[in-house]
Amino acid sequence: MSRGVRNNNPGNIRRSAVKYRGEKHPSTDPAFKQFESAAWGYRAMFVVLHTYWQRHGLKTLSEMIGRYAPPAENATDRYVAAVARESGIAAAQPLHTLDRTQMTAIVAAMSRVENGVPADPQEVAEGWELFKKHKP
């Protein structure tokens, strides 16, 4: 079982000063956040990407993943290509982070890249509902 799955953190979001709803405190993982359920972990991914879109002006899959998984730490080009292929959304296509169809496809694909296993569509959908209910 991958670390992201064990931590209910399908996006492998690193520990930081940012606190998300559904986050476990204290985390027992020294580097990554832990969530009460995978749905809360997916919600955090939606929040991160929405923040990139809203506050940082990142409007495409390529721009968002470039920040989420920077080249200094990741094979970013391969990450973008895998998410684009699996989600059916082109790397340079403008996104809107309040579009359920786009974002659930992207987050599910990112989870697969991060964890090596397909995302559970029900958990992704629950994460989307939590995001919509508890917007940042």
Characterization of this structure:
39% of the residues are buried. By secondary structure, this protein is an all-alpha fold. Helix 5 packs across helix 6 (121-133). It has helices at 3-6, 38-55, 61-68, 76-87, 100-115, 121-133. The protein has one domain (3-133). It contains six helices and no strands.
Task: Give a summary of the structure in a few sentences.
This protein has 136 residues and is mainly α.
Structure characteristics:
136 residues, mainly alpha, 6 helices, globular
Task: Assign an overall shape.
Answer: globular
Number of strands: 0
**Based on helices, strands and strand pairing, what is the structural class?**
mainly alpha
Q: For the CA atoms, what is the radius of gyration?
A: 14 Å
Beta-strand percent range: under 5%
Order of helices and strands: HHHHHH
Instruction: Kindly give the count of domains.
Output: 1
Number of helices: 6
What's the structural blueprint in terms of helices and strands?
Blueprint: H1 3-6, H2 38-55, H3 61-68, H4 76-87, H5 100-115, H6 121-133
Helix pairs in contact: 2-6, 3-4, 4-5, 5-6
